[in-house]
Amino acid sequence: MSNKIKFGILGGGENSLIGGLHRIASSMFDQYKLVGGVFSSNHEDSIRFAKSIGLSSQRVYENIEDLIISELKLPENERMQVVSVLTPNFLHFHMAKLLIDSGFSVICEKPMTTTYEEAKILNRSLQKTKSIFAVTYTYTGYPMVRQMREMVISGALGKIQKVDAQYYQGWINPVIHDSEQRSSVWRLDPNQSGISCCVADIGTHALNMLEYVSGHQVKSVLSDLNFVYNDNKMDVDATILLRLNEGVKGVVCTSQIATGEENSFIVKIYGDKAGLKWEQENPNYLYFMEEGKPLQVLKPGHDYNSKLSLSSTKLPPGHPEGIFDAMGNIYNGVAKAIFKEDYNASEFPSMTDGLRGMSFIEKAVQSHHKGNIWVDLDE
């Protein structure tokens, strides 16, 4: 058998954007071989999809239980080593728990679970194994985001005093203003999505990014959520004030009703000497702002960047790298961990990041419903 990592996928079948993203990302460094999975809740659809991407139907299973039982019967050097969980939120916990307990490594879409309690149970299960667990906060894989992190660590900004993340989308507008649609889509159904839509979907990206690049942890939040209609139970817009360690203050503004916006994610970190700004829709530009000096624009692939940034860059300067490359860098980090190679812990988001994301969701919702008060995150 090939020495590539054999992996499977749960979900991500026909017409799935996220499925294509994961499959392409896994192939970038030539480290993985997709061998099977459960691509749809309908077994026939799953088999048809597998054939459409050139995959044998031999290891296309009816459900996760069938996958685990069948894979564990195979010789160790042939079975799946890692499984990517790309299903709707409410299935993440059950699937990830079964996989961890059966000895598989897991790459899980965010939010990691639908409740913080589930996340803590997953974490306890992981501690009993040697499995690797990654949560795909994809944007941490961009070369210039990693450069941003390294510049903060090196002291280029001085003492951090302000963090700011704005993540605006407009995709839910046609849904939210149609009473029939907003009562039928899974993202606005608490039974499938959890207690939050906007904060869980993109707010956790903002939290993770601010903590990743600043090196500081959010300690407490004060949130104001927007539901637009009284019969809608899920937030679609949020403004959240942050208090971080060492007296740092910040804000997260997220919206899925920002009319006309596509995927506008802007991250800003300000120190007492300089500031940094990065925009997801123009990911190759990192803006370095020093007091009293001209604006500097840093780009990937140049020798002035950090080792972490350069190791995440696949193309020469001037060639754009995007979301597939970012996800590919996360898959590559997981591969290094599975192969027990030396790797930087910041090369992929971990179970800890997933835990903090779930705590953030619950505390943000709690803050709003308690009258917009400060609520502490768990350590």
TrEMBL record:
Q: Which residues form the Gfo/Idh/MocA-like oxidoreductase N-terminal domain?
A: 6-137
Name the Gene3D superfamilies on file: Dihydrodipicolinate Reductase, domain 2 (3.30.360.10), NAD(P)-binding Rossmann-like Domain (3.40.50.720)
The record's Pfam families line, in alphabetical order, gives: GFO_IDH_MocA, GFO_IDH_MocA_C3
Source superkingdom: Bacteria
Question: Known InterPro entries for this protein?
Answer: Gfo/Idh/MocA-like_OxRdtase_N, Gfo/Idh/MocA_oxidoreduct, GFO_IDH_MocA-like_dom, NAD(P)-bd_dom_sf
Start and end residues of each GFO/IDH/MocA-like oxidoreductase domain: 145-276
**What is the protein name for this chain?**
Gfo/Idh/MocA family oxidoreductase
Species in which this protein is naturally found: Psychroflexus longus
